Amino acid sequence: MAKTKTRTPRAERREARKAVAEAKRADKQARKLAKTLSLEAREKFQAKTAGAHDGIRAARDEVRVRPARAKRMARKAAAQLERASIVATSSGDARRRALAETDAKKRAKTIKQRNAQAKQANKMVKHIALHTVVTSVTTPTDKEHVEHRVKQARQRASKVV
């Protein structure tokens, strides 16, 4: 029987690797989310998630030596990323929050959904701003409106006569 490199069973290392992979996915989604935020919000978000990035790296290094610790560190980092995304996007609906707390696989997905929500909100703001500018330019002032009515009244009067 061949001797393994460490005393921990292969299944524990496999679970730890899966937890680290999920944390990396959450990290990737968090980085995408950071790109969509305003400069001030991005700085706050990155400050909150810096520890999680370090935690993921440390968990990756611990997988072979102490897989249970690596798994715990990876899940903690993913949860930290998710909590930061909730604060950054102001969208913490209870159902998704509960799902993410119970299932580590959902964390990256919920961060991705929040990213989409943030993008949609930014699109709506830009659309409303553009619509407001166009409306203010094309809508006649009261003076122009009165002049137009006077002109129409003159044209009607000239047709009658």
From TrEMBL:
This is Membrane protein involved in colicin uptake. Residues 151-161 have a biased composition (Basic residues). Residues 1-29, 102-123, 139-161 are annotated as: Disordered. It comes from the Bacteria. Residues 9-29, 141-150 have a biased composition (Basic and acidic residues).
